[in-house]
Amino acid sequence: xxxxxxxxxxxxxxxxxxxxxxxxxxxxxxxxxxxxxxxxxxxxxxxxxxxxxxxxxxxxxxxxxxxxxxxxxxxxxxxxxxxxxxxxxxxxxxxxxxxxxxxxxxxxxxxxxxxxxxxxxxxxxxxxxxxxxxxxxxxxxxxxxxxxxxxxxxxxxxxxx
Amino acid sequence: xxxxxxxxxxxxxxxxxxxxxxxxxxxxxxxxxxxxxxxxxxxxxxxxxxxxxxxxxxxxxxxxxxxxxxxxxxxxxxxxxxxxxxxxxxxxxxxxxxxxxxxxxxxxxxxxxxxxxxxxxxxxxxxxxxxxxxxxxxxxxxxxxxxxxxxxxxxxxxxxxxxxxxxxxxxxxxxxxxxxxxxxxxxxxxxxxxxxxxxxxxxxxxxxxxxxxxxxxxxxxxxxxxxxxxxxxxxxxxxxxxxxxxxxxxxxxxxxxxxxxxxxxxxxxxxxxxxxxxxxxxxxxxxxxxxxxxxxxxxxxxxxxxxxxxxxxxxxxxxxxxxxxxxxxxxxxxxxxxxxxxxxxxxxxxxxxxxxxxxxxxxxxxxxxxxxxxxxxxxxxxxxxxxxxxxxxxxxxxxxxxxxxxxxxxxxxxxxxxxxxxxxxxxxxxxxxxxxxxxxxxxxxxxxxxxxxxxxxxxxxxxxxxxxxxxxxxxxxxxxxxxxxxxxxxxxxxxxxxxxxxxxxxxxxxxxxxxxxxxxxxxxxxxxxxxxxxxxxxxxxxxxxxxxxxxxxxxxxxxxxxxxxxxxxxxxxxxxxxxxxxxxxxxxxxxxxxxxxxxxxxxxxxxxxxxxxxxxxxxxxxxxxxxxxxxxxxxxxxxxxxxxxxxxxxxxxxxxxxxxxxxxxxxxxxxxxxxxxxxxxxxxxxxxxxxxxxxxxxxxxxxxxxxxxxxxxxxxxxxxxxxxxxxxxxxxxxxxxxxxxxxxxxxxxxxxxxxxxxxxxxxxxxxxxxxxxxxxxxxxxxxxxxx
Lengths: 161, 787
Prior knowledge:
The complex is a heterodimer.
Chain A: E1 2-8, E2 11-17, H1 23-30, E3 49-52, E4 55-58, E5 71-73, H2 87-94, H3 104-117, H4 123-129, H5 141-150
Parallel strand pairs in A: 1-5
Antiparallel strand pairs in A: 1-2, 3-4, 3-5
Helix pairs in contact in A: 2-5
Chain B: H1 16-20, E1 36-42, E2 48-54, H2 56-59, E3 64-68, E4 105-106, E5 112-118, H3 121-128, E6 132-137, H4 144-147, E7 163-169, H5 174-182, E8 186-194, E9 197-198, E10 206-212, E11 217-222, H6 227-239, E12 246-249, H7 265-277, E13 281-284, H8 287-293, E14 296-297, E15 300-308, E16 314-326, E17 353-362, H9 376-394, H10 398-405, E18 412-413, E19 419-420, H11 425-435, H12 441-450, E20 454-463, H13 471-476, E21 485-491, E22 497-501, H14 510-522, E23 529-532, H15 550-576, E24 584-587, E25 590-593, E26 599-601, H16 602-610, E27 625-630, E28 639-648, E29 655-665, H17 672-691, E30 722-725, H18 745-764, H19 778-786
Parallel strand pairs in B: 1-13, 11-12, 16-17, 22-23, 29-30
Antiparallel strand pairs in B: 1-5, 2-4, 2-6, 3-5, 7-17, 8-15, 9-14, 10-11, 10-13, 15-16, 18-19, 20-28, 21-22, 21-27, 24-25, 25-26, 28-29
């Protein structure tokens, strides 16, 4: 067992983990942040995306030990300080960018990473960026709209509400 | 102005806040103190005899509590099938036993053989490596037609053959259909395969079993679309647990699409093992396990013949389908290729004579059951493909050919036993042509041609039957369940309302839509209404969510229960205002006396019901809580016209979907935003089937598409923005809301529209390609073009 310590959503956390423990397992099982979801076992679906030191990472692809000392942000840390939904989260609700909600944490984390890197992405840029996030419910239409709306773009022109 | 509250408003979904903040509670988020972990050891061969299992080394591994095999389940029932089909000759289908863990033989890759339960999941997996299982491999039964030949290997040794049933519908029409086809001016024939799919809800299945010795109560937390159905099937048929000692909870469910309807072995195992070990037992499916243990969908091979007169009027349809059941009968499997498929073969057309033959076949593959649409996509695909082919052969425009044969008078009794109540197929067709800018297609096609690409436009017009009912009819058809829905409306003293529904949401937003309905009826804010579902200890017996039934059936139960509430509240209001009950009106949450300025608020009436000081106790009981069970008189019949525009790259065969438009008639719509989302998601799944997805086995029965590396899920960059419209409204005549189902339409209408579009593109490009089987991969398209 190895001791790992990291900062998750601004709070210092630590735990004893096996060498094989994935960051996704550490978040879900050791520190009970179950908002990060695991939807596959081949690092394809993206439901487990979190930010590690500011970069979007599939947390099922990283060992907990590798995140020792890192700053980790999960979906639980995405709301505004007063608890209200952040701009991206609010856009997902406003534009019905989620249905069952299972892929949603990963989608929101990926969207945040995209907008940091590209503040005004085109529709095609959003679609290309989301290549590593699978949603089975929405057909992506409203996810793309939500992300573009969160970036401040007028989405009424790309599709009817 | 659009409404901002109640029926017709695009109310934002209240469930979104928890999903967007990581506060959703899915089954895998549940951990019970002291829980142990189950790891299923599954067959890696398609068919084989189990000679022996030696668990001694595995049981000696660290942390292992027990290794379970079939011997632990002697005296326990098999996983039951919920629908018995009667064959053409009046005989019941062949129904093999489906053991919780494999007995004597394994019958598909993924068939569970043993389960290791240990203190940690890692220990259970490690110990599974030490399990010694001796299996002699047998020839795999894979091809459905081969499986029915004399001397073929048998999936089940105790059955007479691999044929589950040979079903004819309508059997009395058989000869008349043959005569009509033999004597017709023209017959168009098409042979096709409806590809096998995997539902792939993003949340894999999970089961957590718990047992309380203190009161002999079992609890199962599970990823289910219908917890009461699981309680009934598992309690009564598998484990022999009386329902009052068994609680089934399905919390937030991360998508289902059919795959979470069925009762699965893992649920029974975790419930059983929790009592045997006196420990909570948890199983979480990996995605790889999901591919080989979740019920698959579709997998039909069909020949369809359409007979026409000189004007293209449809005279008769004859189909011959082989439907794959897989190795065992999943819960509703036998009903899919029969009652949910044969009854839809009239489509939107006035074809007077129809005969459907379906041979359901056992093979050494994962069981096949309903997947979004369930039988109706299979019917629609063959029909809308053959109509398109017929149009080409007859030299009639495909839109015109459809219009010539549309049903235009309602109600309309089809020759396949159903009666459509309402619809206006010309209206939806017109709307589609408008929203897809069909008139501008030729200009766009010329642009594509100039760029060396082939552009095509394809249409499909679908009919769907949702909310299968009534119960007495489905009982005659072989269902071993009722298909009503329930609701309890509990009004609290201060006027807020808790609604307990037997429907369950796995992404459809019921908490929002249902609240809109109840709030509208009373005239209070939606925020005053809470929806409770997914727990057999809280809700009345209900049948759950599938088949696009929840608003039409579950919502109607809520309407009935709310009507009872309002009737009682009116009596209370009449008493409070010393007026005649007949004069009491309810509007915007206020009871008034007609023709006076007297009024009492909703909250005053509800308070009086629970603090009945000034109350007609001699006439009515205190309290304000009512339950209704609603059993519909008929299905609902949504319909719509779908149009797909594609561009094919002749160099590579790659198909790009440029646009997809859907003009649906869902009757009245409660929440337009949610309805549009349902259509968009269905379109993505239908486009996925037509273009990308394929569950593939090799000839030895190895599943060769068992991960997202090999099974092509639609991704954001595979799809266009969609154009959806539901402004054509012919309300359903037999439910109080006038609503029709909308959950599956997108997946039903889109595959034929897309394939029709690709064939159109190729034909326009001078390639005489008549059909390509789905998925239309670049390889298949290029090969078809270059023959």
